[in-house]
C-alpha cells in the first residue's frame, strides 16, 4: 500500500492489538465462521481461483472477510460505549485493504486497486503552466483555465503468487493520471496531460517489529512513467523503486526511494532516442515519504518528495478523505511543489482539489 504509492503509496497490511480487558469481552469476542458459511465462500471462490491457490489460503481469505464484517457490526454496537471499550475494539488500520487483496489473489480474473482511484471535478491553480505549449508553438492550450478536472485510475493484476515459498507475489500494475481542461471552452475542453505508469511489482508481506512499528510490506518495482507525447512535449523516465510500509495503531507510513535508469543525451531538441528530461531528479527528487492517520472514519495523509539538495526542490501534498456513502468518500487535496504531472515536473505549482475517492488508502 502507494500512491502512496502512491504510494506510489501502497498500503496493504493488518495490525495486531493487545487482548481486550475482561470488561469488554462481550464486544471483543471473535465469532468463528460456521462450516456452512465457510463452504459457501469456498464454493464461490474455487471456480476462478488460480491453480497455485491452496485450500488453506482460500479458507484464510474467507475467515478474514468474515472477521472484517463482524468487526464492522461490533463497531456500530459500541459507538456510544466508554472510550476504553471502543479502543479495545478498533478495527486494525489496514485490515480491510489486506482482506481485499487476499481474496482478489484467489481470482485470476480480478483487477485489484493499486494506488488511490479518484475523480476531482475541481482542481484549481492560480498560475497554470503554459510554457511547454508556447515553446511547442501549440495554439491550443496556449491559454489554460485555472480550474480543471483531475482523475486517476490505478489497478494491478496478479501474475504469479508465492514465488519464494509462501511469499513473494508478482504483479503488473498500471496507473493513469489525467488533467482535463473541461472548463476550457476556448480550446474545446482538451486533455492537456495524461501520464501513464506501467510497472512490474514484486511484493513481500512481513511482520517485523522495529521501534514499536510493524513492517508489513516490502516491494521492489521496475517502473516506466511517460506522458505518451512526442517531440518537445515528450516526458518520460524509468526507475527501479523500493517501497517499505510500516504501521503502528492508527498511523502508517511508507518510504519509497528510487534509482533512475540513465538514458543517453539528446542529439537535438525532441530527439525520440534521447533523454526528454535529464534534470527531472533535480525537481522530482529521489525518494517519497507517505504518511496516513485514521481518526474514526476520516483519513489524513501527507506526502513529502525531495532530493535532499541545498536548493530544496520537491513537493508536499496534504489530504483529507471522509465518508459520503457506504461506497464513496470525498477528498480534499492540497499540493505545493514540483512534479504534479510530468509536463509540469520543473514548475513550482500550488493546487487545491476537491472530489470523490473510489478506492482509498485502506
Characterise the protein shown here.
- The protein is of the alpha+beta class and 362 residues long.
- The protein has two domains: 22-91, no CATH class; 113-359, Outer membrane phospholipase (ompla), Chain C.
- The protein has helices spanning 25-28, 35-46, 55-77, 83-88, 95-104, 131-135, 280-284, and strands at residues 112-113, 117-125, 147-160, 169-180, 191-210, 213-226, 236-248, 251-260, 287-295, 298-306, 314-323, 329-337, 349-359.
- A hairpin with a 5-residue loop joins β11 (314-323) and β12.
State the helical fraction: 10-25%
Number of helices: 7
Q: What's the pLDDT, averaged over the residues?
A: 81
Number of domains: 2
Please state the structural category: alpha+beta
Query: CATH-wise, what's the superfamily of the largest domain?
Result: Phospholipase A1
CATH class division of the largest domain: Mainly Beta
N-to-C SSE string, H for helix and E for strand? HHHHHEEHEEEEEEHEEEEE
Radius of gyration: 22 Å
> What is the terminal separation in angstroms?
8 Å
Specify the biggest β-sheet: 12 strands, antiparallel, barrel
* Tally of DSSP β-strands: 13
Low-confidence stretches: 1-30, 84-89
CATH architecture of the largest domain: Beta Barrel
Amino acid at each position: 500500500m502507494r500512491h502512496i504509492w502512491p504510494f506510489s503509496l501502497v498500503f496493504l497490511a493488518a495490525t495486531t492489538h493487545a487482548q481486550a480487558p475482561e470488561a469488554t469481552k462481550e464486544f471483543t469476542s471473535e465469532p468463528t465462521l460456521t462450516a456452512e458459511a465457510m463452504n459457501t465462500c469456498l464454493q464461490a471462490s474455487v471456480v476462478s481461483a488460480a491453480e497455485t491457490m491452496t485450500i488453506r489460503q482460500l479458507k484464510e481469505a474467507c475467515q478474514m472477510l468474515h472477521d472484517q464484517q463482524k468487526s464492522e457490526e461490533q463497531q456500530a454496537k459500541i459507538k456510544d460505549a466508554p472510550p476504553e471499550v471502543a479502543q479495545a475494539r478498533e478495527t486494525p488500520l489496514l485490515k480491510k485493504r489486506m482482506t481485499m487483496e487476499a481474496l482478489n489473489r484467489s481470482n485470476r480474473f480480478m483487477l485489484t486497486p493499486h494506488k488511490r482511484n479518484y475523480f476531482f471535478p475541481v482542481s484549481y491553480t492560480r498560475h497554470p503552466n503554459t510554457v511547454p505549449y508556447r515553446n511547442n508553438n501549440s495554439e491550443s492550450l496556449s491559454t489554460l483555465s485555472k480550474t480543471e478536472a483531475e482523475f486517476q485510475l490505478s489497478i494491478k493484476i496478479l501474475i504469479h503468487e508465492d514465488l519464494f515459498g509462501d511469499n513473494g507475489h508478482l504483479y503488473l500494475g498500471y496507473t493513469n493520471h489525467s488533467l482535463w481542461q473541461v472548463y476550457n471552452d476556448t480550446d474545446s475542453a482538451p486533455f492537456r496531460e495524461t501520464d501513464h505508469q506501467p510497472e512490474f511489482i514484486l511484493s513481500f508481506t512481513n511482520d517485523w517489529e522495529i521501534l514499536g512499528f510493524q513492517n508489513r510490506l516490502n516491494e521492489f518495482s521496475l517502473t516506466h512513467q511517460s506522458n505518451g507525447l512526442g517531440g518537445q512535449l515528450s516526458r518520460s523516465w524509468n526507475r527501479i523503486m523500493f517501497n517499505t510500509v510500516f504501521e503502528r495503531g492508527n498511523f502508517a507510513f511508507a518510504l519509497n526511494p528510487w534509482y533512475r535508469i540513465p538514458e543517453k543525451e539528446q542529439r537535438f531538441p525532441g530527439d525520440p532516442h534521447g533523454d526528454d528530461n535529464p534534470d527531472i531528479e533535480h525537481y522530482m527528487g529521489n525518494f517519497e515519504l507517505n504518511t496516513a492517520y485514521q481518526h474514526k472514519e476520516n483519513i489524513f495523509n501527507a506526502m513529502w518528495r525531495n532530493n535532499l539538495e541545498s536548493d530544496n526542490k520537491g513537493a508536499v501534498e496534504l489530504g483529507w478523505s471522509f465518508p459520503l456513502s457506504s461506497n464513496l468518500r470525498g477528498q480534499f487535496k492540497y499540493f505545493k511543489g514540483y512534479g504534479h504531472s510530468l509536463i509540469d515536473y520543473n514548475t513550482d505549482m500550488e493546487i487545491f482539489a476537491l472530489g470523490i475517492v473510489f478506492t482509498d488508502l485502506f
